[in-house]
Each structure stands twice: as structure tokens, then as C-alpha cells.
Design brief:
nine-stranded mixed sheet; globular; two-stranded antiparallel sheet; 235 residues; binds uridine-5'-diphosphate; Carbamate kinase; alpha/beta; 11 strands
């Protein structure tokens, strides 16, 4: 096993599957199974999930809503997704804990770093909800922050595409995929990996990022075992 402790970042949109909005139960079950496979290998798994399938603060602001209000709504959306994923994992027989950056003691523990680490040591999957708890941030930044706080070996960003390309592969058929990049190359080539706040935080703390296709069965397990899948960004 190459990575003993991982932080898996899933976008909210990934949970939609083929739906136009919300949460696709089949997709949820597939993800739970993928995660279960690595937990059973002894890998410690922390997860940050987005909220874009339900609400995005910027989208609200574009329609005239107060940005901060919209961002809090977005954070709450991530808790809904976190609860859905928690349910699916527990159904698959995996022990989990949900920790929220906004206190909500009926549904989630508060985020406490030491407690999160203890859960991970015991083999529980820890889902971090409500992003960083602050407006004007993204769940990519939350994922990076939590990964650093719990000393994850790597952040695994599960997406619909299988890595980082020199141009958008969904728009350009000639797009070329990178197998690995340094942080500096990402800045130089102006590639979009995560938003800059998240990316800089990863860089400054020397936290490697792997962008990969989470919808391909077995990919998560192969990465944890050390196969070169997706695109690795490191120093
Ligand atoms: N959000 C926030 N602070 C955070 C994390 C998220 O304000 O620390 C809000 C923000 O409005 C964002 C929304 O929650 O648009 C959902 O998160 P994101 O867009 O990152 O989700 P994803 O694109 O991964 O589904």
C-alpha cells in the first residue's frame, strides 16, 4: 500500500450521477463500495464532499443573493451530501463519523482534529462537512486544510475526467494528459487543478495532489496501491 492515510475529495456534482440535480442513490452505492475496498486494505480514509449538486454560493450571488448567505447555504448543502454518503457507507458495513465545521450536534460531531485522527486510527471513515466553516472558501480548500490537519499522505481529487490535461478534454479532442506535474509547472502553464487558494495551501505544505476519474471502478484502490493513475502534482 503506497498511501496509508488519504483525503478523498468528491465534488457535489459527482453525486448527481445522471440526474440534473440532487443525489443519485446508485452512484452513492458505487462510491461506498469503492471506499469500502480501500478501507478493507487498511487504508485510513477521510472525505470532503462538495455541495455543488444542491447549492453554490457564487450562483446565488449571481442572481442577486447576498454572497455570505449563499455560501452558508452551500456549506449546509455539503452536510446533506455528507449525511447521504455516511448512510451509504454504513449500509455497506463501514464505520463512519461525520464532523461538521458548523456545529450541528444532532447530526454531526464538531470538527476536532485530535478526535478525527483517533477515528482514522481506529479505521473509521471520517467525513468532513460544512467546508471550512467560512464563506468565500471552497470545498477544495476545505479538503486541503483538513488533509494537512490530519496529516494525510495525499489528497485524491475524484473527478469526471481522468487527470489534468493541457486543455479541456471535454471540449478539445486533441487535449493531452499529463502523468505528473510539479506545483510550479501548474502555475506556469496556468492549469486548473483546484482554485488558487486550495492549490497554494497544498504547495506551501508539500501535500501531493492526485486528480483521477472516480467513476472508473477500481481506480481508487489502484491509486492507494501505488499505480500511476490520473495526474500527480507534487514538488
Ligand atoms: N462553501 C463555503 N466555504 C467553504 C466551503 C464551501 O462558503 O469552506 C460554499 C460555497 O458557497 C460553495 C458551496 O459551499 O460554492 C459548495 O461547495 P463547492 O462549490 O466547493 O462544491 P463542489 O464544487 O465541490 O461541489
Amino acid at each position: 500500500m503506497k498511501y496509508k492515510r488519504i483525503l478523498l475529495k468528491l465534488s457535489g456534482e459527482a453525486l448527481m450521477g445522471d440526474l440534473p440535480y440532487g443525489i443519485d442513490n446508485e452512484r452513492l452505492k458505487e462510491y461506498a463500495q469503492e471506499i469500502k475496498n480501500v478501507v478493507e486494505m487498511g487504508c485510513e480514509v477521510a472525505i470532503v464532499i462538495g455541495g455543488g449538486n444542491i447549492f453554490r454560493g457564487v450562483a446565488g450571488a449571481a442572481k442577486g443573493m447576498d454572497r455570505v448567505q449563499g455560501d452558508y447555504m452551500g456549506m449546509l448543502a455539503t452536510v446533506i451530501n455528507g449525511m447521504a454518503l455516511q448512510g451509504a457507507l454504513e449500509d455497506a458495513g463501514i464505520k463512519t463519523r461525520l464532523q461538521s465545521a458548523i456545529e450541528m450536534d444532532k447530526v454531526a460531531e464538531p470538527f476536532i482534529k485530535r478526535r478525527a485522527e483517533r477515528h482514522l486510527e481506529k479505521g473509521r471513515v471520517v467525513i468532513f462537512g460544512a467546508g471550512t466553516g467560512n464563506p468565500y472558501f471552497t470545498t477544495d480548500t476545505a479538503a486541503t486544510l483538513r488533509a494537512i490537519e490530519v496529516s494525510a499522505d495525499v489528497i485524491l481529487k475524484g473527478t469526471r475526467v481522468d487527470g489534468i490535461y493541457d486543455s479541456d478534454p471535454e471540449k478539445n479532442a486533441d487535449a493531452v494528459k499529463y502523468n505528473s506535474l510539479t506545483f510550479d509547472e501548474v502555475y506556469d502553464k496556468n492549469l486548473k487543478v483546484m482554485d488558487m487558494t486550495a492549490f497554494t495551501l497544498s504547495h506551501e505544505n508539500n501535500l501531493p495532489i492526485i486528480v483521477f476519474d472516480m467513476n472508473k471502478e477500481g481506480n481508487l484502490q489502484r491509486i492507494v496501491q501505488g499505480e500511476n493513475i490520473g495526474t500527480l502534482v507534487n514538488l
